[in-house]
Design brief:
The complex is a heterodimer of chains A (222) and B (232). With 222 residues, chain A is an all-alpha fold. Chain A has a single domain (4-221), classed as MetI-like fold. In chain A, 80% of the residues lie in helices and 0% in strands. Classes of the chains: A mainly alpha (222), B mainly alpha (232).
């Protein structure tokens, strides 16, 4: 089988598609990295809100999580694509749409991980911190969250891998990530088997190295 | 609203296609998942490696890439007659079904493997000591117990499959999300169409989750509180 189509388009696929350097605004990594960071930060707030003693915080947070876990990501992307330009009355680039959709959607999943992590910290820790005179916020920041984070590492990395793979869906609205770059190359060269197997391997190398790092972290945290 | 007339019919068709696609893909995924999950726990190394490479490769690559791979990449390798037949018989549906099933089979196998590994090894040793072959021990002892243990994470994964069936719109399978887009294009009622699609997905997911919670209670093994994997 002839794989020259890959060597000829290697630069476009990797530089433009994976990293985001090239004529288009794009890149899988340029979307995935901010999406993971922002999604996690928003997820911390969602997770803590779900554990809040105040009903008016807990109930909306629970509804948020249940809603986004019951809807496909593709649907959320279309929502953002249509709603935001109508609300703001100005066109939003694909990058902005995709990033917003991923952060909002994944925050629900990250929130569940944060909640489970916080709940895994023994109650005695909170009581001890309170006995030492720490306020609620301080207890959370200095005692609970550091320990929770350690427990969360495996599921966090799994979710990051899921998000990394999900960024391929940004190609549906025309964002030039690795998948879209492959489509562009394929439209010109018509070598679908080689091209799609190649990007499958590129995705695999990224996600598999993420899971190897996760295993190492887990062993160190244990 | 959209429940009547042409739009309503499109929505209903989309819903039916989504259900059909998900159900067939689910059967394939469960079959693959059980086989791969069980093989990953056997002593015989080549089988274990084969199952591991299947799982690690397929679940670590985006579903969308698999959709394109099965729909655009594979058919040109087939003989001309098979290609013609396929494209006259809804190739996109079958490609979507394969992509969903094979991808989620790898993910479900992880759930099943963790279920099998949570069963004490002595159960297997006892069955072999009673004279069962390895295959019989898996079929009669290990798998029935494992399948009852994994109801919550398996439900979670099945719902993921249902939601991920929306990715099939990229290869123009006329499922629910695809039909929502179609209504939007023809009637320009974007908000109504998106709301209708979203509500249908929500109702589907929540009702399946509710039913499965009852199944979980009914099939819980008395005396075992162990939940395998993350709770649903």
């Amino acid at each position: 089988m002839d794989f020259s189509v890959i060597t000829n388009n290697f630069k476009f696929l990797i530089l433009q598609g994976l990293i985001g350097i090239g004529p288009f605004i794009g890149g899988t990594l340029r979307l995935a990295i901010p999406a993971i960071l922002l999604g996690f930060v928003l997820g911390i707030f969602v997770g803590l809100a779900r554990l809040s003693a105040a009903r008016f915080i807990r109930v909306p947070a629970t509804m948020y999580v249940e809603f986004f876990r019951g809807v496909p990501l593709v649907m959320v992307i279309f929502w953002i694509w249509f709603i935001i330009p109508q609300l703001l009355r100005l066109p939003i680039p694909e990058y902005g749409v995709a990033l917003t959709a991923f952060v909002i959607f994944e925050a629900a999943y990250f929130g569940e991980i944060v909640r489970a992590g916080v709940q895994s910290v023994p109650r005695g820790q909170v009581e001890a911190a309170t006995a030492l005179g720490m306020t609620g916020t301080k207890t959370m920041r200095h005692v609970v969250l550091p320990q929770a984070l350690k427990n969360m590492v495996p599921s966090l990395v799994t979710q990051m891998i899921v998000l990394f793979k999900d960024t391929s869906l940004a190609s549906i609205i025309g964002y030039v990530d690795l998948t879209k770059a492959a489509q562009i190359v394929n439209n010109r060269e018509i070598k679908p088997f080689q091209i799609y197997i190649f990007i499958a391997i590129v995705y695999w190398l990224c996600t598999y190295s993420m899971s190897l790092v996760a295993q190492r972290l887990e062993r160190r945290a244990a | 609203m959209l429940w009547t007339g042409e739009s309503g019919r499109w929505l209903l068709q989309g819903l039916l296609t989504t259900l059909e696609l998900s159900a067939l893909a689910w059967l394939l995924a469960v079959a693959l998942g059980i086989v791969a999950g069980a093989l990953r726990t056997v002593r015989f190394a080549p089988l274990r490696w084969a199952a591991t490479s299947y799982v690690e490769f397929f679940r670590n690559v985006p579903l969308l890439v698999w959709m394109f791979f099965w729909y655009f990449g594979v058919p040109p390798l087939l003989p001309r007659a098979v290609q013609d037949w396929l494209f006259n018989h809804g190739a996109e549906f079958w490609a979507g079904m394969l992509a969903l099933g094979v991808y989620h089979g790898a993910r479900i196998s992880e759930v099943i493997r963790s279920g099998i590994q949570s069963i004490p090894r002595t159960q297997f040793e006892a069955s072999v000591a009673m004279g069962l072959t390895t295959f019989q021990a898996y079929r009669l002892i290990i798998l029935p117990v494992a399948l009852r243990l994994i109801v919550p994470p398996a439900t979670n994964e099945s719902l993921n499959l249902l939601k991920n069936s929306s990715v099939a719109l990229t290869i123009s399978v006329a499922e629910l999300t695809f039909q929502t887009r179609q209504i939007e294009t023809y009637t320009a009622k974007a908000i109504e169409a998106l709301t209708a699609g979203t509500v249908i997905y929500l109702v589907l997911c929540l009702s399946i989750a509710t039913i499965m919670a009852r199944v979980e209670r009914r099939y819980a093994i008395p005396g075992l509180i162990a939940r395998v994997g993350p709770a649903a």
